[in-house]
Amino acid sequence: MALTVYAPASIGNLSVGFDILGAALSPVDGALLGDSVTIEQSEHGDFALNCVGRFVDKLPTDPKQNIIYDCYLAFRREMAEIGRTDEVAVSMTLEKHLPIGSGLGSSASSIVAAFYALNEHYGRPFDEAKLLAMMGELEGQISGSIHYDNVAPCYLGGIQLMLEKEGRISESLPVIDDWHIVSTYPGISISTAEARAILPNHYSRADIIDHGRHLGTFIHALYRGDGELAAESIRDVVAEPYRKQLIPGFDEMREQMMAQGALAVGISGSGPSVFVITDSQQKAEAMHRWMQQHFIRNDRGFSHVCRIDSLGTRVLEETA
């Protein structure tokens, strides 16, 4: 039996919640914006990995240097901890449709899809909380610290608030129904390490107060269903003032989007992808066209009109 698992792209931080907010994305045209992993029993009795897709050229050529192999090893270790010593190896195929260093949760998408597929293949030995913890640990190996703002929304869908308490890593927040999100990758890459290094070591008291005010208002507005207030609260005093210099044309893009009716504009994760929130698909389509013409830098870039993906990671196909 073979099954294919899809894990959507995500917006880490959502500007107002550095490392503690994230949202999953779903293009309105039905396109799959995320990575997929297909898993089946290995015909040769040992682990095998094949990588395909638009952005496969940036992956290591040695399968054992790929994060999918790391996921497999971590999963088997956890299986051994619960007394599962199945010797049946698997063959996995990664369809890499998210660019590395894009700010769209590329590594999280691969990791989440891999763990979800492994859990399904081996009969669901782990529950949701345990699987999410495993995903976060692997993501932390790549970024240098464990944070769930991409893996949690990618896995669970919706908008997630990171609690990181015992047995309760994240909490789903309400979604504003009429929000349309333009997600644009300009075609360049920024590493998470580079984007973190540019941030200051200390912030002013005023910035800390503003950050808390905006985050509190945002969550309050979501529960009230006040989309205008929620979007108005999407302000980044922690990262955007410093990271925007890494994204060519960011200030011009923001000015254009606000002039066209944007409710909020921000950097997606560490960048260079950006997101624009508006209250109608018609406005979003016009912004999407502007992005294609003026913000995307090369043929690797892309733009999508999206909604919040409420489903998260799921099985796309299962064959006997």
From TrEMBL:
EC number: 2.7.1.39
GO molecular function, one term: homoserine kinase activity
Residue ranges of every copy of the GHMP kinase C-terminal domain listed in the record: 219-295
Pathway as given in its UniProt record: Amino-acid biosynthesis; L-threonine biosynthesis; L-threonine from L-aspartate: step 4/5
Superkingdom as given in the UniProt entry: Bacteria
Compartmental location: Cytoplasm
Keyword DNA damage in annotation: no
Reactions catalysed: L-homoserine + ATP = O-phospho-L-homoserine + ADP + H(+)
Positions that bind ATP: P99, I100, G101, S102, G103, L104, G105, S106, S107, A108, S109
Keyword ATP-binding: yes
InterPro entries for the chain: GHMP_kinase_C_dom (IPR013750), GHMP_kinase_C_sf (IPR036554), GHMP_kinase_N_dom (IPR006204), GHMP_knse_ATP-bd_CS (IPR006203), Homoserine_kinase (IPR000870), Ribosomal_Su5_D2-typ_SF (IPR020568), Ribsml_uS5_D2-typ_fold_subgr (IPR014721)
Pfam families for the chain: GHMP_kinases_C (PF08544), GHMP_kinases_N (PF00288)
Catalytic EC class: transferase
Keywords assigned: Amino-acid biosynthesis, ATP-binding, Cytoplasm, Kinase, Nucleotide-binding, Threonine biosynthesis, Transferase
All residue ranges annotated as the GHMP kinase N-terminal domain in the record: 66-158
Main function: Catalyzes the ATP-dependent phosphorylation of L-homoserine to L-homoserine phosphate.
Similarity comment: family membership: Belongs to the GHMP kinase family. Homoserine kinase subfamily.
Cited HAMAP family: Homoser_kinase (MF_00384)
Protein name: Homoserine kinase
Chain's gene name: thrB
